[in-house]
Here is the input.
Amino acid sequence: MIYGPLLYIKWRDSNSYLENVWRDIDDYKPRILINETVGWLASETKDAITLVSSKTIKKEGYSSGRRGCGDITILKKAIIKRTLIRMNLP
Here is the structure.
């Protein structure tokens, strides 16, 4: 049986200088991070997707069997690559 949708997302993220010190304005340069995230698609709008790192597959004591945790929302404008991961599970 194939479960999904499990996605691989490569995306751009903003970054900042973590040191809280004074520095010359000319020393500031754009620093963009490239991230990779794998997760189950929990929600999607025209502007963003939300992935969860874990999800339930059975209903046991909850009103719906659809539960997840470990969420991240990524703006679609930041996505470089989106790949569907297919898994064959017993």
